[in-house]
Design goal:
The complex is a heterodimer of chains A (415) and B (552). By secondary structure, chain A is α/β, with parallel strands linked by helices. Chain A contains 14 helices and 20 strands. Chain A has three domains: 41 residues, no CATH class; 184 residues, Rossmann fold, CATH 3.40.50; 167 residues, Dimethylsulfoxide Reductase, domain 2 (3-Layer(aba) Sandwich), CATH 3.40.228.10. Bound molecules: iron/sulfur cluster and zinc ion.
Chain lengths: 415, 552
C-alpha cells in the first residue's frame, strides 16, 4: 500500500473559486478530501487514478512511450497545414508554452468555453462596468442577487465561503439579504434562510432585463411576472443596501434567447445603483481555467481567445477562429486538445486528426490518433491559476506522486 | 568576452562626467576598469560622435497587473496592424512583448510598475516576467487596505506598522510602497465620494494625512531607499494644489515622492475655474529638501487612464472616450479604474494640463528632483518620451505647439514666458542617474566600474533630438548588445528588483488570524517566495540593499 500523506492547505484547481484551505490525504495515485464540503470531495475524487485511467501514451490505440508519441506529434504537425489547439483547461505555464508552440507552427488557439467569456467581456468592451472580488463580497456585501440556479451547484463553497460566511469585516452575515432570481429548489432556499434573509424571485431567466427595469421604475402597470408585494419588498432591500453584489455564471444563461442582453442589463443595473450607492458585479467563471486562459493570452497577445499566429504575431477573429465552426466545417486538419483539469468527455470529429494531451481519466467520444496523458496542476505538479475575480491568482502545489508530465513539459519538447 | 566602447561622448552624471570623450570597457555584464583587462578585447564599437549614457530608467510606468490587462481587453478596436515589426496591440495598452521591444528600442533598460496590489502581485510579476529585455520592479499599494486601516484605527505602534510594511515588501516582492488617494479608495467602498487630506473617513475615522505620515515614517524607519511614492488626494480636481501641499507637509520632513504631480497642480482661478498652480507646487519642490516628483506629462491624442484610484476614476468615467470604462473594488486591498480618454489640443482643460506639466519641468531648479514620466499610459504612452525631451530642450519647438493651442490658456499659465531649455546633461540626470539614486539602484544609472553594463548609445549626427532619443543605435543590457543599428539583435530577460527590510515575524501571527477569518486566501498562498518568482512566475529576484539598518 502506498504511504498516506496529509495536507492542510491544498489549493483546489477544480472550480474558479480556487479555495486554498483543503484538508486532504493522498497516496501515490489518489487524493481524498478528509474534511469539508462533500460535493467538493466528489469533484476531487474524480481525479483519482483507477484501472480505467490512461497513464500511458497511445498512438492509434496502441500503448507507446512518451518519446515515440512526441516524435509522431512533431511529424504530424510539420505535415499538416491548419492546426487548432483547443484548450479545455490548463495552467499559466501550460498556456505560455502552448503560445510558444503555436507561434512556431502557426496554430489557431481557442478555449472550449470562449462563448461565455465573450458574453462577459462584452460589457467591458462596450459599456461601463463595475466589478468586485470574492473578499470584498465576503466582507462588505449586505445584499446579494444571485441570477440563475446552477452557480451554487457548480461552485459548491460559494455560499459558505463567500456569500454568507461566518465572519465578515463590515456586515453581520445574519442580516444579509440574498435575492435568488430564477427557479431555486426548496433545499437551497431553506439552507440560505437558515443563515440569512432569502427571497426567491421565480422568474424565467429571459425576463431578467425586464425585472431589473421594473425594479428601477417601480411602476405597477409593468408587473407581469412579479407581485406588487414582492416588488415593494425587493425595492426596499435594494434601496437600503450599502453594498450590493450581483453574481451569475454565463453558462446559466446558455438556454436563454439573448444571454448578452441579460448580462448587459445586470451590469447596467449595477452601474445605475452606483450613482447614489455602492454595488458591483461578480460573475463566476467556469471551472476550465477560462480566466487563466483569458488573462495570459491577453497580456501575451492582446486578445483573450480565438487567435492565430500569422505574419509575426497573433491575430484575432471571433468568428473565423471559433473552434466549433472550424471543426464542424473541417477547416482545420488537426486538433490538439489540451485538457488538464477535467475528465469530462472530449468530443472529437473523426474526420480530423486528433491529438489529445489529456487528463488520465478523460472520457473520449472516439479514440484519438494520439493520446498523451498529462498531469493535473495542483495535484501532480505546481502551477498558477486565476480565480474567477481575475485579480487573484493562486499557486497550486504538487500533492501526489503520480509522475505525469505537465502541459508545459510536453510543449517544450515539441518546440 | 570584452567589449570596448571607443571614443564615445559620455554622460555619466553620478560620476560628474558630462560630455567627455572616453572609452568604456565591459566584461561579464559589468563595466570594468581598463587597467584590469588582461585578455583580448573581443569587440570594439567605434563610438566617435556617439553619445553614451547609462540605460534609461522609468520609475513610474503601468506595465503589468490587473488594470493593465483590463485595458488591453477593453481596447480591442485600437489594435493596429500597420507595423509588421510588432504585434498589433495598441501602444496605449501594449502586450508584454511589445512593451519590452518598445522600451529597449528607446534605450530604456529598467522600469517600475507603480501600482502593484499585494493581492495581485502574482499576476503583476507574471506579466512583467513576460516583458523581454528590461529589469523591472513594483511598488506595493498600501494605505487603503483594511488590515492597515484597522492598525491605524487601533492606534498600533509605529513599529508594528513598520513590521507590516516590511512584510508586504517581502510578500509582494516589491521595491517600494505607494499610496494612492490615501484612505480614499477604501472610503469609496463605503460610498464616500471625496476625501480631503484632513477629512476623516466615515468608517475608520482616519484622515489621509494620518496614512501618509505613518507610511512615510515606516519607509524612513526601515531604510527603504525609495521614499513613499504618493498619488495624492483629489487627483485632477481644480484647486487640488492645496491638498498636494498639505500632503507634502504630512510627510513631516521625511522623504516623499509625489507621482504624476502634473495632475496634482491645478488651481481654480478664472472663468472656467481651472488654472495652473505649477508655480506654487514648484516653489515647494525647489524648497522642500526630501521631496521628489515625477511629472506625468500629458500629450494630445488617444490614451487610456488606469489607476488604483477607483474613487476618482468612477468620477472620470463621464469623460470616457470611447464611452466604456471599468471600476473594481479589490479584496479589501485597494481598487482600480480603467477609463479610455482622449486629450484634445483644442480643449482648454487638456491644453492647460499640457502646459502645467511642462511648467513643472521647467521651473524645477534641480533635475535630480524631478523625473521624466507620462505616467504611461495615463498622460500618454511611454513612446512619447523622445517628443517630451524635445519639448524640454527646444524652446521654439515648444512655443510653436503652444501657439496652436486655445489662446485663453495663456491667462492661466506662464509657459510662454519661460526661456529655459534643458541641456543634454540635465536630460541624462532626470532619465537615468536621478531615478537610480532615488530608487537606491547603486549599479544602475551610472557607468561606474562594477556597475551593470546597461548602456544606451545615441548617434549625435542625428540632428533632430526627438529622432535621436527615439532610436539609439546601440543598447546593451547586462553587457550584451541587444539593439544594434537600431534593430533588435538578441532577446534576453531581465530580473525583478526588490528590497527586503527586516521585520518582527510576530506580525505574521496577526496576519494569519486576519487572513483565516476575513480573507479568501491563506497567508502562505499570498506570499511570493523567491523560488516561486523564479520557477513559476518566471523572473529571478534581485534584492537591493536598504539604506541603513532599521531604526525602530
Ligand atoms: S468550491 Fe470549488 S475550488 Fe472550492 S473546494 Fe470546492 S471545487 Fe474546489
Ligand atoms: Zn501612475
Amino acid at each position: 500500500m502506498a504511504a498516506q500523506k496529509s495536507y492542510k492547505s491544498m489549493v483546489c484547481p477544480f472550480c474558479s473559486l480556487h479555495c486554498d484551505d483543503l484538508i486532504i490525504e493522498t497516496s501515490d495515485n489518489n487524493i481524498r478530501l478528509t474534511q469539508g464540503n462533500p460535493e467538493c470531495g466528489k469533484k476531487i475524487s474524480r481525479h483519482n487514478i483507477n484501472s480505467q485511467s490512461r497513464t500511458s501514451a497511445t498512438i492509434n490505440k496502441k500503448k507507446t512511450g512518451l518519446t515515440e508519441a512526441l516524435k509522431k506529434v512533431k511529424k504530424i504537425i510539420e505535415k499538416k497545414s491548419e492546426v487548432l489547439i483547443l484548450n479545455h483547461g490548463t495552467d499559466l505555464s501550460g498556456l505560455r508554452s502552448l503560445l510558444t508552440f503555436a507561434s512556431k507552427y502557426h496554430c489557431i488557439i481557442d478555449h472550449i468555453t470562449s462563448k461565455f467569456l465573450f458574453q462577459n467581456i462584452g460589457i467591458v468592451q462596450r459599456t461601463g462596468y463595475i466589478a468586485t472580488s470574492l473578499m470584498e463580497t465576503k466582507n462588505r456585501a449586505d445584499t446579494i442577487i444571485i441570477f440563475g440556479n446552477n452557480i451554487l451547484k457548480k461552485n459548491p463553497r460559494l455560499l459558505d465561503r463567500i456569500l454568507i460566511p461566518d465572519a465578515s469585516l463590515c456586515v453581520n452575515p445574519k442580516k444579509k439579504n440574498i435575492i435568488l432570481v430564477g427557479s431555486f429548489d426548496k433545499n437551497t432556499i431553506n439552507s440560505i434562510s437558515r443563515k440569512s434573509n432569502a427571497i426567491n424571485v421565480r422568474i424565467k431567466l429571459d425576463n431578467i432585463p425586464d425585472f431589473l427595469k421594473i425594479i428601477n421604475n417601480n411602476k405597477s402597470e409593468t408587473l407581469r411576472f412579479i407581485t406588487k408585494q414582492s416588488l415593494v419588498k425587493i425595492n426596499s432591500i435594494i434601496k437600503k443596501s450599502k453594498y450590493l453584489v450581483s453574481t451569475w455564471t454565463a453558462s446559466d444563461f446558455s438556454n436563454t434567447k439573448n444571454p448578452e442582453d441579460i448580462i448587459s442589463s445586470i451590469s447596467k443595473f449595477i452601474v445605475d445603483l452606483n450613482i447614489t450607492s455602492r454595488a458591483a458585479c461578480m460573475p463566476i467563471s467556469g471551472p476550465l481555467a477560462d480566466s487563466t486562459s483569458a488573462q495570459a493570452l491577453t497580456w501575451l497577445t492582446g486578445f483573450p481567445s480565438r487567435i492565430k499566429y500569422s505574419n509575426n504575431s497573433f491575430k484575432h477573429n471571433r468568428t473565423a477562429y471559433n473552434s466549433e465552426k472550424l471543426i464542424e466545417n473541417k477547416q482545420v486538419d488537426t486538433v490538439i486538445h489540451v485538457s488538464n483539469l477535467s475528465e469530462n468527455e472530449l468530443i472529437m470529429n473523426k474526420n480530423i486528426y486528433n491529438i489529445v494531451l489529456g487528463h488520465p481519466n478523460s472520457k473520449l467520444n472516439i479514440e484519438p490518433d494520439i493520446f498523451i496523458p498529462i498531469g493535473i496542476p495542483g495535484l501532480d505538479h505546481e502551477g498558477i491559476m486565476f480565480r474567477t475575480d481575475n485579480v487573484v491568482s493562486v499557486a497550486l502545489k504538487s500533492v501526489r506522486k503520480l509522475k505525469l508530465p505537465s502541459t508545459q513539459t510536453i510543449f517544450n519538447k515539441l518546440i | 568576452m570584452i567589449i570596448r566602447l571607443k571614443s564615445g561622448i559620455v554622460y555619466d552624471p553620478t560620476n560628474n562626467i558630462f560630455n567627455r570623450t572616453k572609452d568604456i570597457f565591459i566584461k561579464d555584464g559589468k563595466i570594468i576598469n581598463k587597467n584590469n583587462i588582461h585578455g583580448k578585447i573581443n569587440q570594439t564599437i567605434d563610438c566617435t560622435n556617439k553619445i553614451i549614457m547609462p540605460g534609461a530608467i522609468d520609475l513610474h510606468t503601468h506595465i503589468g497587473g490587473g488594470k493593465v490587462n483590463i485595458a488591453r481587453l477593453m481596447l480591442e478596436e485600437f489594435h493596429d496592424e500597420t507595423d509588421a515589426k510588432y504585434d498589433s496591440s495598441s501602444i496605449i495598452a501594449p502586450t508584454t512583448i511589445k512593451t519590452g521591444l518598445k522600451y529597449i528600442e528607446m534605450g530604456y533598460t529598467t522600469c517600475f510598475e507603480p501600482a502593484l496590489l499585494p493581492i495581485n502581485a502574482r499576476q503583476a510579476h507574471a506579466e512583467m516576467a513576460d516583458i523581454p529585455f528590461i529589469d523591472k520592479g513594483g511598488y506595493a499599494l498600501l494605505g487603503n487596505d483594511d488590515f492597515f486601516l484597522n492598525l491605524l484605527r487601533k492606534k498600533a505602534s509605529q513599529s508594528v506598522i513598520n513590521d507590516y510594511v516590511a512584510f508586504i515588501l517581502k510578500a509582494s516582492q516589491s521595491m517600494g510602497i505607494k499610496v494612492v488617494n490615501p484612505g480614499g479608495i477604501n472610503a469609496f467602498k463605503f460610498n464616500q465620494r471625496a476625501l480631503d487630506v484632513d477629512e476623516k473617513s466615515k468608517y475608520y475615522n482616519i484622515t489621509p494625512r494620518d496614512v501618509v505620515t505613518k507610511l512615510a515614517r515606516a519607509i524612513y524607519d526601515l531604510g527603504v531607499p525609495h521614499p513613499l511614492h504618493v498619488h495624492c488626494s483629489n487627483l485632477g480636481i481644480p484647486g487640488n494644489f492645496l491638498s498636494t501641499i498639505e500632503t507634502i507637509k504630512a510627510a513631516e520632513g521625511m522623504p516623499i515622492h509625489l507621482t504624476h504631480i502634473q495632475f496634482q497642480s491645478y488651481g481654480n482661478n478664472g472663468d472656467r475655474g481651472f488654472s495652473s498652480a505649477a508655480v506654487e507646487i514648484s516653489n515647494h519642490l525647489n524648497k522642500v529638501k526630501n521631496l521628489t516628483c515625477d511629472v506625468g506629462q500629458i500629450m494630445f491624442g488617444q490614451t487610456v487612464t488606469m489607476s488604483g484610484d477607483s474613487m476618482s476614476q468612477h468620477k472620470n468615467h463621464k469623460h470616457a472616450h470611447p464611452n466604456k470604462w471599468m471600476c473594481m473594488d479589490i479584496e479589501c486591498d485597494a481598487g482600480c479604474g480603467v477609463v479610455p480618454f482622449k486629450y484634445k489640443d483644442q480643449s482648454f482643460v487638456n491644453s492647460l494640463q499640457w502646459a502645467i506639466g511642462l511648467e513643472i519641468f521647467l521651473l524645477a531648479e534641480d533635475p535630480w528632483k524631478v523625473y521624466l514620466t507620462t505616467d504611461h499610459p495615463n498622460g500618454a504612452p511611454f513612446t512619447s518620451y523622445p517628443h517630451l525631451i524635445k519639448l524640454l530642450m527646444d524652446r521654439s519647438f515648444r512655443n510653436d505647439i503652444l501657439r496652436e493651442l486655445p489662446k485663453d490658456i495663456l491667462n492661466h499659465t506662464i509657459l510662454h514666458t519661460i526661456k529655459r531649455e534643458y541641456t543634454m546633461s540635465e536630460i541624462a540626470i532626470m532619465t537615468r542617474s536621478a531615478p537610480a539614486k532615488i530608487l537606491g539602484l547603486s549599479q544602475k544609472g551610472n557607468l561606474s566600474i562594477g556597475s551593470n553594463a546597461d548602456i544606451t548609445i545615441y548617434d549625435k549626427n542625428i540632428k533632430d533630438i526627438e529622432e535621436m532619443f527615439a532610436h539609439p543605435i546601440y543598447v546593451l543590457k547586462d553587457g550584451e548588445i541587444v539593439v544594434e543599428n537600431g534593430k533588435i539583435k538578441k532577446y534576453r530577460w531581465g530580473k525583478t528588483h526588490t528590497v527586503k527590510p527586516e521585520y518582527d515575524k510576530s506580525i505574521e501571527k496577526s496576519l494569519t488570524k486576519f487572513f483565516d477569518k476575513y480573507h479568501t486566501m491563506k497567508l502562505d498562498n499570498y506570499v511570493l517566495s523567491d523560488e516561486e518568482m523564479e520557477n513559476m512566475i518566471g523572473s529571478k529576484v534581485y534584492v537591493n540593499e536598504c539604506k541603513y539598518k532599521r531604526k525602530q
